Amino acid sequence: MGPDTQKEEGLLPTTPETPQEGAGGVEGSVSSGLPEPDEPDEPDEPVVDTRGMPTCLLCTCLGGSVYCDDLKLDSVPPLPKDTTHFYARYNRITKINKSDFASMNKLKRIDLTANEITTIDDKAFLGLPELEEVVIRENHITQLPALPETMTLIDASHNNIGTKGLHREAFKDMTGLLYLYLTDNHVDYVPVPLPDSLRSLHLQRNNIQMMHEDTFCNLKDFNYIRNALEDIRLDGNPINLSRTPQAYICLPRIPIGDLI
C-alpha cells in the first residue's frame, strides 16, 4: 500500500465450485398401505447458522477474505461473521446502509472500488473495532462518512467530495493513519489536523488555493520535525507553494506541486 494508483489484490475466480450443503434428499417412496412399525423419534436437528452461505456460493470465500468483484451486485451481500477482508469492486452498488456491516467485529478491510455509490450512512463504518482500511475510490460520494480511530488507510479518490463533505478534524484522532488519498475531488483545503503517523497525503487535482504556515508544522516549536510525512501531492491545485515556505520547514521533503 502506498502509491495512489489502485492496488489490485489479484482477482480470484468468482464462481467457485462449492457444493451446496443440504442439497441431498431421499426420493419420495411408495407406501405399502400397511402400518409401519414404530420408530424411535429422531433427535431435533441442530440449529446451524447459515448467515453468509449464499454469499460464499456467489462470491469466493477464502479464509476470512470474501471476494465479490464484478458480479453486478447492487447492494452489499450478507457476510460471514468471521470476514476480515471484503472486496466488492466493479459492481453496481449505489448505497451503503448502517446495517450492511453491523456486528462485523473482525472486519479489517473494505474495498468498494468502482461502484455507483452516492450515499454512505454516516455510521456504516463505526462500531467495527478492527477496521483499518477503507477503499471507496471511483464512486460518486459527496460526503466522507465517519471512520473509526483504528484507520491506517483511507482511499476516497475520484469522488465528488467537497469542503462540506469532510467532518471537522476528521482525521485528528487516527493515531495509526498512514495513507490518506483524496485525489480528484473538490476539497479546497488541507484537512488538518493530521496525525503524526501519516506517511502519504495525496490531494492532487482538487481546489486547494492557499496554505497556512502551520498546516503541517508547529510554529511554536521549531524543533518539531514531521519525519513520517515524506509523500505529499498537491499538483493540479490552484496554489503556489512558494508563497508559504515556512509551511514546509518541518517536512523531510517539499510537497509536489506548482512553485510559480
From TrEMBL:
Where does the record place the region Disordered?
Answer: 1-49
Q: What is this protein called?
A: Epiphycan
Q: Which GO terms describe its cellular component?
A: extracellular matrix; extracellular space
State its location(s).
Answer: Secreted, Extracellular space, Extracellular matrix
Name the keywords, alphabetized: Disulfide bond, Extracellular matrix, Glycoprotein, Leucine-rich repeat, Repeat, Secreted, Signal
PROSITE patterns attached to this UniProt entry: LRR (PS51450)
Family the entry assigns: Belongs to the small leucine-rich proteoglycan (SLRP) family. SLRP class III subfamily.
Segments forming domain LRRNT: 55-85
Bias (Basic and acidic residues) occurs at 1-10
Its GO biological process terms?
articular cartilage development; bone development
Q: What is the residue range of the signal peptide feature?
A: none
The protein's matches in SMART domains, at most eight in alphabetical order, are given as: LRR_TYP, LRRNT
Q: Where is the composition biased (Acidic residues)?
A: 36-47
Organism superkingdom = Eukaryota
- What single Pfam family name could you report for this chain, choosing any that match? LRR_8
